[in-house]
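Minimal example, chain plus pyridoxal-5'-phosphate.
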Amino acid sequence: MDQSQLHVKLRHLPAVHKVLSATSYLEEQYPFALRSEVAAQTIAEIREQLVNGCMDEVPTIERLIDMVQTRLQEIQQMHYRPVINATGVILHTNLGRAPLAHDAVRAIVDTAGGYSNLEYRLEEGRRGSRYEHVEQLLCKLTGAEAAFVVNNNAAAVFLVLREMATDREVIISRGQIVEIGGSFRISEVMRESGGKLVEVGTTNKTHLYDYERAITPETALLLRVHTSNFRIIGFTEEPELSELVSLSKEKHIPLYEDLGSGCLIDLAPFGVSSEPTVAESIRAGVDIVSFSGDKLLGGAQAGIVVGKAEYIKRLKRNQLTRALRVDKLTLAALEATLKLYLTPEQAVDKIPTLWLMKRPVADIQGIAMQLQERFLESGMNERLDIQVVPIQSQIGGGSLPGEELPSYGLQLESRSISLTDFEYELRNLPLPIIARFHKDALIFDLRTVFPEQIDAFVKGCEDVYGKLCTFNYVDR
Ligand SMILES: *Cc1c(COP(=O)(O)O)cnc(C)c1O
């Protein structure tokens, strides 16, 4: 394009004030400053595209107004929003781990918008502690003398090591020096906390005498980490918890167990081979136990520490607790979730993590078949092969490795539609749907799709199918 042609086009670009007056009908929704900024930005970008030759014609004023309005909407729309989890991974860390129970959500809603008695004793009319509200519940549910809550379990591990073992030795079995997700490593946390790691035994076998021999006057703590995200099988050995407790008592060295998942009830009835419960560890005589609030417990993100009163008291006094403290929303959700555990049958029905685990496979199969039927009715089988297939769901979240639950899924295959595009479009819906690929097929595991999401799920799939058929989609 020659220069004079370009100049003519640039002169036809509307001025910012023109676009502003044309979008004045939006003035109640968007402040003037934001509208002018977006209008100026949009015009500047069009100018640049015209100069680069990426755009041939000046858009009409109607088109420009539409562009400005779309951008304003994008700015106002929440980027952080709900998704439909069709991966079958129950505790999906990328998708927010544990979905909260309705009771927990209600507790957040009830207290969040106003003032609350977060640190105030209503009976006495004076300052209280924010932890009081959940401490008694935690003691009741685990049998511990005292309890404390921090931001997450990683913070709990750090705090315990820092308070109990700075500049002193901590004995741990080699097979338990683990990395959790996001490169959180026991060895690194130990270094940061100022404790000295004393590794004993081997990767697969550690005996009680390994611990015994490593004890010196410098030993501050025996640490046992539940290998919650992997499993060593075959020729393996670790001392029994009771043996470690006896050793700890005999030598007067406290025993700390990082349980990871924080299971409060027996999961065996769900077909999940027994995960140790917090109460079991406390009953066995472990001095300090820590675990997450948003793994198997199914509550809000938190690190919970329970154990002997003398140690919990020390942790509470540590200056770090201020930096690691939980907010009012977490405490509201945690208290409501813990209350449900007072009646275990209620916990299993109302806490989504547990409910999803116990969901009967026949129910999931039934839903898969209904969905297949609905997709056939809307004609989606014209370009998709839609099958109901038996699959395995994972618990996830670094909990219960190798432990899978039988489930059913809907499997899509196609020769005329790119499933890569299909999956991309699903992820970018207003209510995104997250699925997984298995070989060349796209799979929806219906275990983690809540019944109230089914209609939105169907609509999302139909919309994407329609879009891909209409636009004769080009491969990315
Ligand atoms: C998950 C886990 C952690 C970290 O817990 P977060 O609550 O995610 O910080 C620490 N230790 C073990 C053994 C774990 O499984």
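The chain has three domains: 3-76, 84-94+357-470, 102-350. The first strand starts at residue 84 and ends at 85.
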